[in-house]
UniProtKB/TrEMBL annotation:
<keyword id="KW-0648">Protein biosynthesis</keyword>
<dbReference type="GO" id="GO:0005829">
    <property type="term" value="C:cytosol"/>
</dbReference>
<comment type="similarity">
    <text>Belongs to the class-I aminoacyl-tRNA synthetase family.</text>
</comment>
<keyword id="KW-0436">Ligase</keyword>
<keyword id="KW-0030">Aminoacyl-tRNA synthetase</keyword>
<feature type="domain" description="Glutamyl/glutaminyl-tRNA synthetase class Ib anti-codon binding">
    <location>
        <begin position="341"/>
        <end position="440"/>
    </location>
</feature>
<keyword id="KW-0547">Nucleotide-binding</keyword>
<dbReference type="GO" id="GO:0006425">
    <property type="term" value="P:glutaminyl-tRNA aminoacylation"/>
</dbReference>
<protein>
    <recommendedName>
        <fullName>glutamine--tRNA ligase</fullName>
        <ecNumber>6.1.1.18</ecNumber>
    </recommendedName>
</protein>
<keyword id="KW-0067">ATP-binding</keyword>
<dbReference type="GO" id="GO:0004819">
    <property type="term" value="F:glutamine-tRNA ligase activity"/>
</dbReference>
<feature type="domain" description="Glutamyl/glutaminyl-tRNA synthetase class Ib catalytic">
    <location>
        <begin position="25"/>
        <end position="337"/>
    </location>
</feature>
<dbReference type="GO" id="GO:0005524">
    <property type="term" value="F:ATP binding"/>
</dbReference>
Length: 581
């Protein structure tokens, strides 16, 4: 790795740095606590924490809190939780604001070196000096403003006036004296400090001036002895000013390196747009399972390890990648396939009475949680009244329909017995209400074309009470009708698919659910080294960690709306296999 290879303006600084790190890699994940993290951030988290871990190094979680107007503790709390949920442990949790005093001192140092000045230009004037033309494009002549020639003493005096509250918001800024003739716009005298008369959630009313990202980030990286400052590609041009400032104030200079952003097709990541979705009640909140915030993915039941393994599959690219959401689903499915138990679930049940079984027929059948894996089994009852899914029956089967019909028997999963339908009752609206069936104990019906899931009804002393009744099953598909909601001419809200959430109120699952619930988060022996690494950290007792595959239906988890008396399930992803077979 490249620790210690960044050429330093002052080699002494590198020695001091190495004395601290002992050559270990130090990285940081630096979110601004002004919103909830999304799937793209997971890549930044995995990159920073993963890179450090790979080299037995350390990674800070640093809240970059230099915009007090937009920031809130509820965001930093959520970010901390998500990092831990993904399985990472910060070396330290720090805040840019922890360093406001040191940063202020460095600003004075920069001024005294003649490398910063207090500027009173309006934004329009700044643009004009930067050679930005009426059409908003750069290319005009770049010129120094009158303030740039301040003496260091004058600049210091004015800066202290800024600090002491003499100027109101927007009136004065401290600007770095960089290089106006440099082709890189990130060198055109960036703002280092601005006046903001707002309270800071950590430093209260202590400061009236706040440092900018451009001033703060590199210097805090330096103070924390970060060896590799990994950031997204849009900061590529900022690398020059990052290095310029560290050298200008003569501190250790970390190595900034860039990686590509991750975007998911058909998802909205912008905080402003997410807020519109939430405040307009278009979704169930920031954690609505159809969103791609990490709190939403967690609520939807996506295991933390599945997110890590998805990012791992994509690799750390240096270009921005826009991934189709089906690729994400495929990756999650693959992860769930080997890690969650299986249950029988009937989402839209229809009663089947088995005519040739006695009224009180009761048999217990052992079912493995995961066939082929040594993770135990559970018992379900088999009785005269069972339920199957409404979609698994038609009156008359044609050649493409393999399941139950009056002219076609079907097998019952896990018991391998076959039933044939002898009658179907409909109500006055021609809705199917009940099926009468016969149970084949002698193999007379032969091998069925396929097997379907079922649950049995049973009550009474000493018997397994079955089935588990689900109050709500929520099934989701993409929130937006198109893959590019922002491209909708009527705005992205017009692109919302009103049927993207479907609710089923009568679903049933087999009684294996109770053990699945008490044993969650489900632990399956990791097969490979990657699987072990990519486990994440489910919280014991959290609803979303209760996950299972509903055979032939999809993957589900418990939703946080569940209570002791109410069971709500979310569909995590559908099953890949075509349900119609
Ligand atoms: P915004 O500009 O909307 O506030 P941000 O990207 O600046 O969003 P931060 O909280 O500053 O959000 O991000 C923290 C870190 O996560 C940064 O290093 C940033 O580069 C990285 N990051 C943000 N979005 C993505 C993404 N889509 N893919 C990869 N990394 C990302
Ligand atoms: Mg941000
Ligand atoms: Mg940012």
């Amino acid at each position: 790795h490249a620790a210690g290879t960044n050429p330093q303006a002052n080699p002494e600084r590198m020695k001091e740095h190495l004395a601290f790190t002992k050559g270990r890699v130090f990285t940081r994940f630096p979110p601004e606590p002004n919103g909830f993290l999304h799937i793209g951030h997971a890549k930044a988290i995995a990159t920073n924490f993963g890179y450090a871990a790979y080299y037995q190094g350390e990674c800070y979680l640093r809240f970059d809190d230099t915009n007090p107007e937009a920031e809130d503790e509820k965001y930093s709390k959520s970010i901390e939780e998500i990092v831990s949920w993904l399985g990472f442990e910060p070396y330290k949790i720090t805040w840019s604001s922890d360093y406001f005093n040191e940063l202020y001192e460095l600003a004075e140092k920069l001024i005294l070196k003649g490398l910063a000045y207090v500027c009173f230009c309006t934004p329009e004037q700044v643009r004009a000096h930067r050679g930005i033309k009426e059409d908003g494009l750069p290319g005009g002549e770049r010129t120094a403003c009158e303030h740039r020639s301040q003496t260091p003493e004058k600049a210091l005096e004015l800066f202290r006036e800024m600090r002491d509250g003499k100027y109101s918001k927007g009136e004065a800024t401290l600007r770095m004296k960089q290089d106006l003739q440099n082709p890189n716009p990130q060198m055109w005298d960036l703002v280092a400090y601005r006046v903001l008369n707002s309270e800071h959630h950590r430093t209260g009313s202590q400061w009236k001036i706040y440092p900018t990202y451009d001033f703060t980030h590199c210097l805090v990286d330096s103070m924390e002895n970060v060896s590799h400052s990994l950031c997204t590609l849009e900061f590529r041009m900022s690398r020059e000013s990052y290095e310029w400032l560290c050298d200008a104030v003569d501190v250790y200079r970390p190595a900034q390196r860039e990686f590509g952003r991750l975007n998911l097709q058909g998802s909205i990541m912008s905080k402003r747009k997410l807020l519109q979705l939430v405040e307009g009640n278009h979704v169930r909140g920031w954690d609505d399972p159809r969103l791609f915030t990490l709190v939403a993915l967690r609520r939807r039941g996506i295991p933390p390890g599945a997110i890590l393994s998805f990012i791992n599959e994509l690799g750390v690219t240096t270009t921005t990648t826009t991934i189709e959401s089906v690729r994400f689903d495929t990756s999650v499915r693959k992860y769930l396939e080997h890690s969650v138990p299986r249950l029988m679930m009937v989402v839209d049940p229809i009663k089947v009475v088995i005519k040739n079984l006695p009224e009180d027929y009761y048999e217990e059948i052992a079912i493995p949680f995961m066939p082929g894996k040594d993770v135990g089994e559970y018992k379900v009852p088999f009785t005269k009244t069972i339920y199957i899914d409404r979609s698994d029956f038609v009156k008359e089967a044609d050649s493409s329909f393999f399941r139950l019909a009056l002219n076609q028997p079907v097998g019952l999963l896990r018991v391998k017995n076959v039933i044939s339908a002898v009658d179907a009752k409909y109500d006055s609206n021609s809705n199917l209400v009940e099926i009468t069936a016969e149970y084949d104990t002698e193999g007379k019906l032969g091998k069925p074309k396929t097997y379907i899931q079922w649950v049995a009804e049973s009550t009474g002393n000493g018997k397994i009470q079955s089935p588990v009744v689900v109050d709500e099953v929520r099934e989701f598909r993409q929130l937006f009708k198109s893959d590019n909601p922002s491209g909708n001419p009527n705005g992205f809200l017009a692109d919302i698919d009103e049927n993207s959430e479907r609710v089923f109120k009568n679903a049933m699952i087999d009684v294996g659910f109770y053990e699945v619930k008490s044993r969650s988060p489900w632990k399956v022996e990791a097969q490979t080294k990657e699987e072990r690494v990519l486990e994440g950290r489910d919280t014991k007792g959290s609803p979303e960690s209760v996950r299972f595959q509903g055979l032939r239906v999809g993957y589900f988890c418990m939703d946080k709306d569940s209570t002791d008396n109410k069971l709500v399930l979310n569909q995590i992803v559908s099953l890949k296999e075509d349900k119609q077979k």
